[in-house]
Specification:
The chain is of the alpha+beta class and 465 residues long. It folds into two domains: 4-167, Phosphatidylinositol Phosphate Kinase II Beta (2-Layer Sandwich); 178-444, Phosphatidylinositol Phosphate Kinase Iibeta, Chain: A, domain 2 (2-Layer Sandwich), CATH 3.30.810. Helices cover 28% and strands 16% of the residues. The chain has twelve helices and 13 strands. It has a seven-stranded antiparallel sheet. β4 (105-107) and β5 (113-118) form a beta hairpin. The longest helix is centred in the first third of the chain and has 20 residues, at 4-23. It is globular and about 65 Å long. Residues 268-274, 292-301, 333-348, 378-406 and 417-465 have low confidence and may be disordered.
Length: 465
């Protein structure tokens, strides 16, 4: 059995070799066949003319679609040397509170990347998604969908361990006072007693409804940007027949942290070493929904660490870190797990269109609320008024009056949202149209390759079936 330390070492050796090898090759446009290339290199423990000696068992390292993933990393402003430094220079940190999937999670010491082990079917599904994923990222890098930076496989001792490198949604340098995994379902969606006993539990939908009935209140501009982003992302996921995804929500409570510091007699933040923000473009929550900055520009989020300013029902100031996770679930091979359950609206897994509709409705009507009494902060550099100015730390992200009043009771749903004024109306040709193309349309050019036009196409079934 491959131990965690062996796996971490093999990942770092393998990525170090494959990224270094790729950097010696000239850059070029991504071709259709690039999505299906798999490169393999053998790492004997005694070393070879290509690989260094190491103290692990012999292993083989596979890199999937190296040229395509190099393009994705470049799209997010990740240089090869920064990618190598983050992943290979310092030991990887294993997260002690992994998800229910049983996957192992590692985070890089600089908080930039998450490495997650995935099942064979998930890795296979990601490979098939790559052409459509490429198309969507190319048009719309600002998304709450996972940013995939690499897909690899370590073969050792007769086992295949597949890992994916992704963006880190919840930076460790920011204390998350609350953490939620939300699907928009209420069927068995409450954190277990065992989960609640953890030092940093992950709560679920019913916990959110019970503990935060007023929801999380955002100013009008931020709420609008978030709704538009969720709308685009849900329609993209639906078009790919993806379901059972979640919104990972981390809540940093500024007022609670100030109270904790006062109790501990800590110094003010001005006397402390400031945490370093993530470097990858569009990696933070605020960058993911912010549409006003020119494409490729860095956005100043140092004082909020990229969190989305919000207020809870008590009027406390919050910073939200959000992202959509667990998207590598195909309707075709997930639905059978639930085929013996009563198919009610509350069950977590449904056909993709229903799942997307319910997910979007729950997020925009229950979790996030528009509060017209909250004012957007003016931008320091004349950009869209979605971000806090860098004047007085996180305080600048909030207006003086923050009591939860004048709530917006408008009901939002995914179909009605199709007529939303999109960011395209603001001269943003780099964003997705309101209705994304289907997977089949997105991959028409790939028919001649190993991916058929029907490999991800499954007939829509009604819940009664």
């Amino acid at each position: 059995q491959t131990t965690s330390s062996t796996l971490k070492g093999a990942i770092q050796l393998g990525i170090g070799y494959t990224v270094g090898n790729l950097s010696s090759k000239p850059e070029r446009d991504v071709l259709m066949q690039d999505f299906y290339v798999v490169e393999s290199i053998f790492f004997p423990s005694e070393g070879s003319n290509l690989t260094p000696a190491h103290h692990y068992a012999d292993f083989r390292f596979k890199t999937y679609a190296p040229v395509a993933f190099r393009y994705f990393r470049e799209l997010f402003g990740i240089r090869p040397d920064d990618y190598l430094y983050s992943l290979c220079n310092e030991p990887l940190i294993e997260l002690s509170n992994p998800g229910a999937s049983g996957s192992l999670f590692y985070v890089t010491s600089d908080d930039e990347f998450i490495i997650k082990t995935v099942m064979h079917k998930e890795a296979e599904f990601l490979q098939k998604l790559l052409p459509g994923y490429y198309m969507n990222l190319n048009q719309n890098p600002r998304t709450l969908l996972p940013k995939f930076y690499g897909l690899y496989c370590v073969q050792s001792g007769g086992k295949n361990i597949r890992v994916v490198v992704m963006n880190n949604i919840l930076p460790r340098v920011v204390k998350m006072h609350l953490k939620f995994d939300l699907k928009g379902s209420t069927y068995k969606r409450r954190a277990s007693k065992k989960e609640k006993e953890k030092s940093s539990p992950t709560y679920k939908d019913l916990d959110f409804i019970q503990d935060m009935p007023e929801g999380l209140m955002l100013d009008a501009d931020t709420f609008s940007a978030l709704v538009k982003t969720l709308q685009r992302d849900c329609l993209v996921l639906e078009s790919f027949k993806i379901m059972d995804y979640s919104l990972l929500l981390g809540v940093h409570n500024i007022d609670q942290q100030e109270r904790e510091r006062q109790c501990e007699g800590a110094h003010s933040t001005s006397d402390e070493k400031r945490p370093v923000a993530q470097k990858a473009l569009y990696s933070t929550a605020m960058e993911s929904i912010q549409g006003g900055a020119a494409r490729g520009e860095a956005i100043d989020t140092d004082d909020t660490m990229g969190g989305i300013p919000a207020v809870n029902g008590k009027g406390e100031r919050l910073l939200l870190h959000v992202g959509i996770i667990d998207i590598l679930q195909s309707y075709r091979w997930v639905a059978w797990h639930f085929c013996f359950l009563p198919l009610q609206d509350t069950v977590s897994v449904h056909r993709p269109s229903f799942y997307a509709e319910r997910f979007f409705k729950f997020m925009t009507n229950t979790v996030f609320r528009k509060n017209s009494s909250l004012k957007s902060s003016p931008s320091k550099k004349g950009r869209s008024a979605l971000l806090a100015v860098k004047t007085a730390g996180p305080m600048a992200a909030f207006s003086a009056s923050q009591l939860p009043s004048e709530k917006d009771d408008t009901q939002y749903d995914l179909r009605a949202a199709r007529s939303y004024p999109t960011l395209d109306d603001e001269g943003r040709p780099d964003l997705l149209p309101c209705t994304p193309p289907s997977f089949e349309e997105a991959t028409t050019a790939s028919i001649a390759t190993t991916l058929s036009s029907t490999s991800l196409s499954v007939p829509e079934r009604s819940p009664s079936e």
